[in-house]
Specification:
Blueprint (H helix, E strand, L loop, with lengths): L5 E5 L3 E5 L4 E6 L4 E2 L2 E2 L7 H15 L5 E2 L1 E4 L5 E5 L2 E2 L4 E6 L2 H10 L1 E2 L2 E2 L9 E7 L2 E2 L7 E2 L2 H8 L1 H24 L2 E12 L5 E4 L8 E5 L15 H10 L12 H19 L3 H6 L6
Parallel strand pairs: 6-17
Antiparallel strand pairs: 1-2, 2-3, 3-8, 4-5, 7-8, 9-16, 10-13, 10-16, 11-12, 14-15, 16-17, 16-18
This protein binds ligand PZK.
């Protein structure tokens, strides 16, 4: 049996191929980006860690929302997915105030139309998680939009469904992760519709590339927090004095090893499964 794969899309560090009319192959590479630039040095096993984490979360949130995962491939770094009609919305949930949410708040006291209490700190925990959708920018950064604009894009009923579903997914994962020493500050989902118009969670879910993971032990609101996975890379790049425009710098061996260890640590803490067990049989996460 042979399959001809047709390349359909490239993300910064992932590729999407068509298998047939109904199925796509999502391949997670070992590439890493920082300050929005993909670096020339790979982190061995990063793609497998992210693929395994997504599959773990998909398996545990099926009752909250259906998802696109059909099959984890034996290599552990790629998945067969259902082909969907994607919604033109990045579905972001924030439990803590960081990144563009913090920037919006400092300027306006709100983000994506959510008026927030005064006196919140950078990286502070929000009173309640909030849904802050953004549009998929064709170039550059996604743009935060309010619920009115998001409803124009997907319709009122679908908007309410993706908001409630996103919040429920976040609450589930954030509670699980916090119990295992990792704060999920925020996360981004992509949803699609199946042929019957049912909402389906697509893309990746609760990976360090789609979420801000912070080590709970070091959590100190009132400033930016170290990233669980990329902090060695950022610190190294800052110390180099690189101007953050392409091309990015090569990473030395110790930064690669330290970063790889952080990805494996996140995987093992969140799943409770040894990474070697996952490599031997990826289906152990599902
Ligand atoms: C789809 N993307 C973004 C993600 C990339 C690009 N299940 C699906 N059905 C139809 N389309 C998509 C998906 C998913 N997931 C997702 N673009 C199309 C994207 C990852 C890598 F290169």
């Amino acid at each position: 049996m042979s399959e001809t794969l047709i390349h359909v899309a490239s993300g910064k560090v992932r590729e999407l191929f068509t298998i047939d009319d109904d199925r796509l192959l999502l391949v997670a590479s070992d590439r890493i980006s920082t300050f929005d630039v993909v670096l020339p040095t790979e982190i061995p096993d990063k793609g497998r860690v992210l693929t395994g984490l997504s599959a773990f979360w998909f398996a545990r949130t099926r009752d909250v929302c259906a998802n696109h995962l059909l099959e984890l491939r034996p290599d552990g770094g790629s998945t067969e997915c259902r082909r969907l009609e994607m919604l033109p919305l990045e579905c972001v949930v924030r439990g803590y105030l960081a990144g563009s949410g913090w920037k919006d708040y400092q300027r306006t006291g709100s983000t994506s139309g959510h008026a927030l209490p005064r006196g919140l700190q950078e990286s502070g925990r929000l009173p309640e998680p909030i849904f802050t959708p953004s549009t998929k920018a064709t170039s550059g950064h996604d743009e935060n939009i309010d619920s009115g604009r998001a409803m124009e894009l997907v319709g009122r009923e679908r908007y309410e469904e993706v908001e409630q579903t996103s919040l429920a997914l976040y609450r589930f994962a954030a509670e699980h992760a916090a119990a295992h020493g990792i704060l999920i500050a925020d996360t981004k989902f992509e949803f699609g519709l199946d042929a019957d118009g049912r909402l389906v969670l697509a893309d990746e879910a609760f990976t360090p590339d789609s979420s801000r993971f912070w080590p709970a032990d070091d959590y100190t609101p009132g400033g930016s927090q170290p990233s669980f996975d990329k902090q060695f890379v950022r610190d190294y790049c800052e110390a180099l004095g690189w101007d953050k425009t392409p091309p990015g710098p090569e990473l030395p061996e110790d930064v690669v090893a330290g970063t790889r260890a952080r990805y494996l640590d996140a995987f093992e803490r969140l799943t409770g499964i040894a990474f070697a067990e996952y490599l031997a049989d990826p289906t152990v996460v599902t």
